[in-house]
């Protein structure tokens, strides 16, 4: 873990989110309207040219977080700083100019491309809203071809429709579209979970190559821990609208502080065969409703270590007890953080 | 809309390649759609050129020839018989084609354009804009359109322009509701979100992403509505506040011929047939256009008609 | 399409009972606008009672269609054009619709991936779970209802009696999948086919559902066919694996051996592309290209265009499954070279 230095040594992060809160009003059967708390005080940091992995199960708020970062939703509370700017203070032209700096790659390579547009039209679409940086005339075709080439498609693919491509190729088109405006940050929302394994590796390699060549940062949202472990420098783990643990990727996944992280790691099926299956803690129950979250620690209803204090008080930030020095800013929010265990194989 | 330049090769879901589909090759493969197109073209040509050919035969009375049944004995204009005043039914059908279309087409187009534009705008934005638009639509719908027409046309002069206006207003909610429902659904699709992430304005998003998807549905609604508008026009004409004799429309002919239905069926039935054939052709062509404008569905038009119903699944339901 | 033969049926050890499900030379053709396409080509595998076979492959490889063919739920454009499937020694592919219906439930059953669309949204889950008992066992409404409640209890649904009156949409994804499994195992089938049973679920819930399936299998002694694209699920839960690619079974054998010493380049490519096995920060070993479309499956080996070992013989001749070890087989001309690695 020598490559992880305390944040003070590093240049200012590209994106910092502090205390983001977002709730939605939802219609309920009998009791009238209820509020669904999707984000409940989320802190996040994305370093320049690095990848932050965001892990959590469905309903944990990671998609809402992505939408907030893309300014598709406005948070109820909290601040966002992107390269020193609070994008929510921007208006009109400045706002539209800012939008090009954060782009998104979507999970579903089928639904995220308009089936009535050709690959070239899809890739060039962002330019139609950003005339100032859009390449003109013949430059435009050249640029589309460059982008196609960059993501590993052939120039001849430019005039084909999405239905004529395989899932992996469509995802490449989606990536090319995200690159068209030259963004600083790309939010990747489960970019490979809809793809076949052999194709998934191609797309992950492509994302890594692009990061090396273009220096773009990623917020990589995924439920697949082995993918996150491979691509992410740092990881934040979310549960019911809160970040329950964050830190350097290998630290978090190999030596988790929070019992939820530990359970996630242990539930994830693994290729490593050990005869009659590994020892695993299968969590009981499912995620509680975000309309009616538990008091205190959100995870206590499923936590094997929960005690009364977990219901009464918000969990404090904790480090792994007896953690070796030099673990950077690895934190979990838990009353009963996990202690050192024998080093995993 | 249906073609793009360049020798594009498309692959259908089964992986077979076909040449670049031109719209006329697609149309040629569909015999029913060809028939529909031919019928519609004939109706249009009749409406445009017919009046030049028939002279005054549509209004020339000949009481000796009153209520002649359709026969081959009385020359071209006697083919479809005569009405009670001895006027040639064929000539009147031709004359009426122009009047009918000049009311129905503008009325349908106006309500289509206004209704869809407002509907897509309301559906895309949602919230208060949507509520206001929908309440207005409800108000129009809850008002008996015939009553509205009667009042307005009595107060104002019953002219073709006023008729078009009334019919258009009465039908706007149909398109508004359809467009709103579809665009509210499409708004939540990922590629619309994607467009928002790179800062596309709402107007451009509607035109680029929502309109092409909603349009085929709206056109289908419009062709069905075409029939409704023609019949409404006929009932207004029947009440004496629509098309004013001696001008004639198909609807008016049906209305006038109604009393002779038992003695001279051809006076009412033939214009009815004209209405039905026109609307059915328009509907068939709309269904064809719906497929032809969808790149993901277009290949189906290359199949024999009976096979089109079910898309061939080549893969499995796994993601 | 060259005619292909089934992989040699694994010879059971003398005295061993016959497999609960044995599929041989299964071939499924699709009627498409451009003619007949072969989606499943000479697929064979067998599962014994109490064992789990994983049918592993990527989307479009024909694994789900194989399952649908066996249970008789093929889409109308697809039809079985060859092969046999024996369930407990009875050939099922040639059975009539009504004969099959008698097997569905007590002998052969399937769990679908999408639990929401697989259930009737306007009937209570209790009524739906009671249905198999009423149809096959002729139980009264009340008795069948009682059995349904027991069943819900058995798959770990809390407060089953109260929940039996709920509708499918009132359950979470994991609970719905449990209900679907309950429905499938209601009549204690001999063979249960699970088509991507956990794909739509969260990781922690996925683990619960797999645990439930393993538990039920141990209790009822079913043979389980697990259809999946997830290598890790196969590694953890299956005894044997049949790897499918472009409508063909390319490798079969015990999971532990196939996954540690793959003898088909596709199997090896899949295993190598798992991020878990790659060094961090290094590129993953991706299999280049993508699977062939059904219309353009090459003569010769189906994997040749993506294979690092492809040679002339691979383009000329389609490899037949050959034994590569005890109870293992691979359809590759060059599997010996993989063995020597």
From TrEMBL, chain A:
Taxonomy, superkingdom: Bacteria
PROSITE patterns on file: ABC_TRANSPORTER_1, ABC_TRANSPORTER_2
Keywords: ATP-binding, Nucleotide-binding, Transport
Record GO terms (molecular function): ATP binding
InterPro entries: AAA+_ATPase, ABC_transp_ATP-bind, ABC_transporter-like_ATP-bd, ABC_transporter-like_CS, Oligopep_ABC_C, P-loop_NTPase
Record domain ABC transporter: where: 15-265
Family: Belongs to the ABC transporter superfamily.
Name used for this protein in its record: Oligopeptide transport system ATP-binding protein
Region (Disordered): 311-345
TrEMBL record, chain B:
Protein's membrane topology: Multi-pass membrane protein
Keywords noted in UniProt: Cell membrane, Membrane, Transmembrane, Transmembrane helix, Transport
Coarse class of the protein's main subcellular location: membrane
Annotated ranges, domain ABC transmembrane type-1: 97-286
Claim: Transport is one of the keywords in the record: yes
Recorded family membership: Belongs to the binding-protein-dependent transport system permease family.
Domain of life the protein comes from: Bacteria
Name of the protein in question: Peptide/nickel transport system permease protein
UniProt keyword annotation of Protein biosynthesis present: no
PROSITE patterns: ABC_TM1 (PS50928)
Spans traversing the lipid bilayer: 31-54, 75-94, 100-124, 136-156, 210-231, 264-289
Stretches the record annotates as Disordered: 1-20
Location(s), subcellular: Cell membrane
Automatic annotation (TrEMBL), chain C:
Family matches, as InterPro entries: AAA+_ATPase (IPR003593), ABC_Ni/Peptide_Import (IPR050388), ABC_transporter-like_ATP-bd (IPR003439), ABC_transporter-like_CS (IPR017871), Oligopep_ABC_C (IPR013563), P-loop_NTPase (IPR027417)
Compositional bias (Pro residues): 1-20
UniProt domain ABC transporter: residue ranges: 21-271
UniProt keyword annotations, A-Z: ATP-binding, Cell membrane, Membrane, Nucleotide-binding, Transport
Membrane topology, record value: Peripheral membrane protein
Major subcellular location class: membrane
Record carries keyword Endoplasmic reticulum: no
Pfam families: ABC_tran, oligo_HPY
Gene3D superfamilies hit by this protein: P-loop containing nucleotide triphosphate hydrolases (3.40.50.300)
Domain of life: Bacteria
Localization in the cell: Cell membrane
Entry annotated with the keyword Nucleotide-binding: yes
A single MF term (Gene Ontology): ATP binding
Region entry Disordered, spans: 1-22, 317-341
Record family assignment: Belongs to the ABC transporter superfamily.
Protein name (database record): Oligopeptide transport system ATP-binding protein
Lineage: Bacteria, Bacillati, Actinomycetota, Actinomycetes, Pseudonocardiales
